[in-house]
Amino acid sequence: MLHFESQALRQGYRCVAGIDEAGRGPLAGPVAVAAVILPARFELPGLTDSKQLSERERERLFVEIRRQARAVGVALGWPDEIERINILQATLRTMVRAVGRLRCTPDYLLVDGISRLPTAIPQLPLKKGDARSMSIAAASVIAKVVRDRLMVNYDRRFPGYGFAQHKGYGSQQHLAAIAELGPCPIHRKTFRGVREHLAGS
């Protein structure tokens, strides 16, 4: 899974960052993005796409990635930005912000997905990159853990929606809570499942 990183290094790049997001699909909460720069010789058994891992495995890998990585940058795209420019554009902008929060500036980016980032840094979008690139897989774990922890905190701040369980995704429990309680401040008001329950809709 270091093929794309090694390829970039052979092409003369010296600092390769993998980028991934968590939370494009939920009805509530931010989209979380992580950018991770791994050392040239990096081994972490079990690391793969965060969606294939249990919560316990993600938490263990999160600690190891933070310990071993050359740099980790995290950024959040909040519901108001998502509502204003749509989830794809908000995600791409948040990815650029995450890169900007790395303590060293990368000269090459491996990006999960098919869209290019609005930045001049050379980059390679990789479809299903979180299963093909170690750097992207590491970023996927960081983004997922950061977002899940945030949603657990929001469960305490906005009780009744079940954020700690479904993390903002459109489960039957969540949809029923929105219908009963109405949207709360972290709901994405332009998303189906939320907009139908706005006052005056």
Note down, in words, how this protein is organized.
Helix 2 (55-68) crosses helix 5 and helix 3 packs across helix 4 (87-100). The chain is 40% helix and 15% strand. It has one domain (3-157): Nucleotidyltransferase, domain 5, CATH 3.30.420.10. It is an alpha/beta fold and 201 residues long. It is built from 7 helices and 5 strands. The protein has a 5-stranded mixed sheet.
Low-confidence stretches: none
Structural class: alpha/beta
Q: What is the string of SSEs from the N terminus onward? A: HEEHEHHEEHHH
- What would you report as the Rg, rounded to the nearest angstrom? 17 Å
Tally of strands: 5
Strand content: 5-15%
- CATH superfamily membership, which one? Ribonuclease H-like superfamily/Ribonuclease H
CATH classification, class level: Alpha Beta
Number of helices in the DSSP assignment: 7
Q: How far apart are the termini?
A: 48 Å
Give the CA-based shape: globular
Q: What is the CATH-assigned architecture? A: 2-Layer Sandwich
Give helix % range. 40-55%
Q: Domains counted in the coordinates: how many?
A: 1
CATH topology: Nucleotidyltransferase, domain 5
